[in-house]
Design goal:
It is built from 2 helices and 41 strands. The chain is mostly beta strands. It has a domain of 201 residues: Immunoglobulin-like (Sandwich), CATH 2.60.40.1190. β14 and β15 form a beta hairpin. The N terminus is likely disordered.
């Protein structure tokens, strides 16, 4: 049966005065009066049929909370697929249920709340229309419970209005429900969403109609103090250090959609460790932000520019030349003024690095404003300023400022997406060639995916609080970085085939990708021609074949692997390779992936294998081993290199509020072996106790470099929160 993809269903939510207990069972009389949302449609592996595992949803609200109840059917004898009890689980590899809201109806920003069949929670900020860039690291306070039975499972959610941002006068929101059944590998939705788009796409939501306008949440204040203590010992210098600290954050709701965040003496040490990656690109790698202060409304600042041309990258704050920088405090005002306007203002003050000459205090100020235009597009302005100090005074010769304008295109039907920007930097010295601009335009339908991208970065375009990895090129002989301008052109085209006579195959996608980098005179520096063929199976397995034709011009002598006996000389190099990647059925308890690569590499040869294997002890444990091995052989005198990265990991979640993680990373390119263990106990909503232990060794002699132990406690106190209304 076929369905129109422009359907907009409606659900009327009624108010209740009855006390609701969150236990996964709709025992209260109020639930009998609530309307039912049903007749879910498949979104994957097809978008033209009713779901085989049906779902029925009810909603209620009172003056403090929004309630959701769902009945999730399972096929007779069906098995549950649950990857973990850990918070922020992977939605597509679990039996799960999601509700997501677009309170302002701008089809750009929203909220998602999810639970899996064993009670783990996930919440996200939906960005860019819910198509990509969801902020999974956003955490907030809400409650849920599930019950499993012979024919399926039921769930209840209690979401505080204080958690959401909305305009109380609006009597309708945009909303959708989604359901995953891992045993059937089926994804279904209440309001139809075409298969080519994310199930969280805000352009294909239904309407949530309020019996009365949603209540004003009233003032909301959260106080989040922390305390920590730790010990580290550096065996290379034979120095030990005890570390103590207290500080905290405060969140204040100025309006239901505008928040003020304050932080004093924050601890920005990582309780999560970055996953290491083998790097043969000659350029810096990007690692995402993991610090909570920067996450709320992060897209308002971080989405300016492109992924590789960012005027603002928060990980530049609190770190300088690999050395932690003390942060005195910060303030951020961010959120929506109304349906069309969104603002963000942030200011952070850091201090000098103890014992490092020339490292004085710095101030980081960022302001952004975004205006919705047309149906789902927006235009934004950003200002980023880093100001250095000498003592307590501004240093007039130590600053960097970036001003930029961005336009994000999203068509009403979601077929066209795009981004266009122009940024200019200001710093001491010349302003010539100190700008960057780029354009991206994408067209996506069920069968076609077409993309165009161009970028230009001037050699004097400087973003001290940003990220531009290709602008600085390392001269291995002079051991210095040289700044250069560059152009980039990046088109892609692919055609998606859905075979009718191959019951196990979901799609076959042939495509062609071209990646072209050139200098300011448009003379090519790096070029990749990449025809490929991808086959996706209905059981979630996939296989991809790639062929790469490469050209690289080395402008300076370069140590490609980081361990060459002699750098490669200046000149142009042509080389080619092939790769095949295979992923097994992710729903299986034992699953894995592998990629094989072989071909020429500059003047030598490259052979590599990478992948991983994982086992799920459902639902309490995940055991995995990721690895990569690259053999690079150059003719004399350049040498042979063998690069090994291996990373076994254990995640144990015996309870929904207790998470135990342990892994080590052995990396011969970084010449480091890292051992990491963490215990996290969520003893109250949004309140955690962390115990983290780390050790680092050299890979050649396994000589210990350092070890450390840290204990950190974070508690979230909501003095104005209504604790009496509704049971949990």
């Amino acid at each position: 049966m076929l369905f129109s993809q422009q359907v907009e269903k409606e659900y009327k939510i009624i108010e209740t005065r009855e006390e609701i207990k969150i236990d996964g069972v709709a025992a209260e009389e109020a639930w009998k009066l609530a309307f039912v949302a049903d007749s879910f449609k498949m979104q994957f592996p097809e978008d033209t049929r009713y779901a085989r595992s049906q779902t029925r949803v009810k909603m209620l609200y009172d003056q403090s909370f929004l309630y959701v109840y769902a009945e999730c059917d399972k096929m007779p004898g069906g098995k549950y697929v649950v990857s973990s009890l850990k918070r922020d689980f992977d939605l597509l590899s679990n039996d799960g249920f999601s509700v997501y809201f677009d309170p302002f109806g701008d089809f750009i920003n929203g909220f998602r709340f999810s639970v899996n069949a064993y009670g783990a929670q996930e919440e996200s900020l939906l960005q860019n229309g819910g198509n990509w860039g969801d902020e999974l690291r956003w955490d907030n306070k809400w409650w849920s419970a599930v019950k499993r039975h012979e024919n399926g499972w039921t769930l209840e959610m209690k979401i505080p209005f204080k958690t959401l941002r909305y305009k109380p006068e609006l009597n309708h929101w945009h909303m959708n429900f989604a359901r995953t059944d891992g045993d059937l590998n089926e994804l279904s939705v209440w309001n139809p969403v075409p298969i080519v788009y994310s199930f969280s796409s805000l352009s294909h939501t239904g309407k949530l109609l309020w019996e009365n306008a949603p209540p004003k949440p009233g003032p909301n204040i959260s106080i989040i103090p922390f305390a920590l203590g730790g010990y580290t010992h550096d065996y290379q210098t034979n120095k030990s250090q005890w570390r103590w600290g207290v500080g905290g954050d405060m969140k204040i709701s100025i309006t239901p959609s505008l928040n003020l965040d304050l932080t004093v003496l924050p601890d920005f040490s990582q309780v999560d460790v970055d996953q290491q990656i083998t790097n043969l690109t000659r350029f810096s790698l990007f690692f995402p932000e993991q610090r909570q202060f920067f996450i709320d409304n992060s897209d308002l600042f971080a989405r300016f520019g492109f992924s590789r041309i960012r005027p603002f990258f928060s990980r530049q704050i609190g770190l300088k030349n690999g050395q932690p920088v003390p942060i005195y405090g910060g303030v951020r005002l961010s959120g929506k003024i109304n349906r069309d306007w969104r603002i963000g203002i942030m200011d952070i003050q850091t201090g000098p690095v103890p014992g490092v000459n020339g490292s004085g205090p710095e101030n980081f100020f960022t302001a952004a404003v975004q205006r919705r235009v047309f149906a789902r597009s927006n235009i934004g302005l950003i200002i980023v300023n880093r100001q250095g100090f000498t003592g307590n005074r501004f240093n007039p010769y130590d600053y960097n400022r970036v001003v930029g304008i961005d336009y994000d295109l999203n068509s009403k039907d979601n077929k066209w997406t795009g981004k266009f920007f122009f940024h200019h930097s200001f710093q001491p010295g010349t302003l010539k060639d100190s700008y960057a601009h780029a354009s991206y335009l994408g067209y996506n339908t069920k069968k076609w995916s077409i993309m165009w991208n161009h970028e230009y970065v001037g050699k004097n375009y400087r973003v001290d609080v940003g990220f531009v990895p290709r602008q600085a090129v390392y001269d291995a002989l002079k051991m210095e970085l040289r700044r250069l301008s560059y152009w980039r052109l990046e088109p892609l085209i692919s055609y998606i085939i859905y075979p009718k006579n191959a019951p196990s195959i979901f799609s076959i996608t042939p495509g062609f990708y071209w990646n072209f980098y050139a200098d300011s005179s448009f003379s090519s520096n790096d070029v990749t021609y990449n025809p490929y063929l991808s086959i996706d199976f209905k059981n979630s397995a996939s296989i991809t074949f790639n062929y790469y034709e490469n050209f690289t011009r080395l402008l300076f002598p370069s140590d490609i692997t980081g361990n060459m006996s002699t750098p490669l000389p200046v000149g142009g190099y042509s080389y080619r390779s092939g790769a095949v990647r295979f992923n097994t059925n992710l729903r299986k308890r034992l699953n894995g992936n592998m990629q094989l690569t072989a071909g020429s590499f500059f003047t030598g040869l490259l052979a590599g294998v990478s992948g991983g294997i994982g086992y799920r002890a459902q639902p309490w444990g995940n055991f995995s081993l990721n690895f990569s091995y690259d053999y690079v052989e150059f003719p004399a005198p350049y040498g042979i290199d063998r690069i090994l990265l291996i990373s076994p990991k254990i995640e144990i979640t015996p309870l929904n509020n207790l998470f135990i993680t342990g892994f080590f990373q052995y990396n011969t390119q970084a010449r480091n072996l890292n051992i990491y263990g963490r215990v996290q106990w969520r003893f109250a909503p949004m309140s955690d106790l962390f115990l983290v232990y780390t050790e680092n060794y050299g890979t050649e002699l396994l000589n210990i470099k350092n070890r450390g132990l840290i204990l950190k406690c974070v508690y979230r106190f909501d003095p104005l929160f209504n604790r009496k209304k509704s049971k949990v």
